[in-house]
Amino acid sequence: MQFLSKSREAGFTMKEAETLRRLAAQCGFSDPSSILAVQKQLEMCIRLLIQEAHAAGEGSNPEIQAFLSKLYDYRKKIEIDAPEKKAISNSRQIGAGQPLQIFAAEAGVFKSQVVKNTSGYMTISRPVSSDSGPVREWRGMRVSVYLWREDDAGYVYDTEVTDEVYSLGIMSLKISHSFELARVQKRRSVRAKMSAPAFLYLMGEGEPYHKTEAEPGLKCILEDLSDTGCAVTVGGRADDGLRVKIQFELGGAALCVSGTVRSTIHRAETDRSVLHIEADPLPVAVRNKILGKVFGTMEEYDGLELPFRLMEYEALGEPMDKIPAGPAMPGAARP
To answer: Quick one: average pLDDT of 62-89?
Structure first.
């Protein structure tokens, strides 16, 4: 009765709670309530549910997919609501290479990144913007700094530019440290590191979301993946706001995630860019497969068609394809 009560509080129906209790017993857990608090135990139950569904030929059953979605939502909640161990309290804890957004009053929003960070000050690359005009004199300017730390949250703080310098061969600014960081946004998802070959397609207006393609697209590398988006590395530069689809292999199936490029990081030494993509709403089955990869509950099933199998060789080829300045295919255009 205690387990049923906790399950109801967690958002599960009586029928779903009974299924969870059965799965917990099959996994050998003496107290089924533990699966509602211990991540690994819940993952074992999810894995067993997936195995049973596929063995019975019910892997695509909408009712089972809906139940899996609720389980994954709860699993994600356990991790995101856990006490944050990676939170920072001052700007001295920000690492080199961290992307930044610089907000300058009456000048606009600029991109930058940390060049180096010492106990006395932080050195950042000279901020640039495609929308705002260049700032002639940064020294003495008050600015707001925003950053997003992976697997943590967003932070913002106010500071002052103390000098303009060359650091590690690039034009840079020195800015003062702050011990008043505001933690403004927690992460919405849990990501899996990937480093897997993938294809990128520029999306045309009105093109269906998440529709898989039979032909290869632009070669890229899938760097990480979550149920809310992904990051990929491509050749050359790309713009924020670009509408794209990313196609890759997962669990023996071809998946396609469409979305909008929200931020980019260009690495001049390799002429490659990392694109951070916010996904459009995912179909339940696709989202469950992605979360199965994230939480390690997914089983591998060999179901790829031959054209997509070529991706393993195509996508890792050199040089990596560059996103063209104009349309790459009929109907594909920049927003």
So the answer is: 86
